[in-house]
Amino acid sequence: MGHEWIDAEKEFKWSEDVKVESEVTEIVLVRHGETTWNAAGRIQGQIESELNEVGQKQAVAIAERLGKEARPVAVYSSDLKRAKDTALMIAKTCFCPEVTEVPDLKERHVGSLQGLYWTEGAEKEPEAYSAFFSSQNDLEIPGGGESFDQLCDRSMNALEQIAKKHKGKRVIVVTHGGVLRAIYLRITQASSAGKLLNASVNVVHLRDKKWIIDSWSDVSHLSSVGFLQRGFDGDSKP
């Protein structure tokens, strides 16, 4: 009966590779706190809007929650102020010395809809409004806006770069409703992302080069603060 020879060096390398691939990178995605425009029902897109009083309380609440959980190695944020202000509070309680701004994490540019109220979008900018809710993902929104595919590509690329830099670690990323929706739909291939709530916690894992949704739209930390029930819903017209 013959012997079965094993290449020990090859076997060791295979085992080592499996160990590396099994590492889980955890990214905690946070939507910024409520803003004055969120409360008023205005379309922000990439226009700046300040956190209102409720939004500031939400930022404190989410910071307190995350400060009690496993410490992240880094905190990232969109370069829009509403996200940065939320991220700064989180970084402080998590003992992270800085917040790294990533422009590709900013909200979707929604063209000529920016600055309008949701209730007037269909009447004042019908083409842009229709493009925003269109199922044609490569359709750019009139007025300099992005297509949904463009939003998905830059959002996922930013996430991939952050995960690559912090492989096997826990990272917090503060961003926007549109970006969260894009990430959820790209990962799950679902037809709807549901409501994306202000100051919500959304956790994704990267394991063996595959993205997995661990938890989504958790606002249990806002029970004493409150939040807008309508949230951001890019799948249903107001």
From TrEMBL:
InterPro entries: His_Pase_superF_clade-1 (IPR013078), His_PPase_superfam (IPR029033), PG/BPGM_mutase_AS (IPR001345), PGM_Phosphatase (IPR050275). Pfam families: His_Phos_1. SMART domains: PGAM. SUPFAM superfamilies: Phosphoglycerate mutase-like. Belongs to the phosphoglycerate mutase family. This is Metal-independent phosphoserine phosphatase.
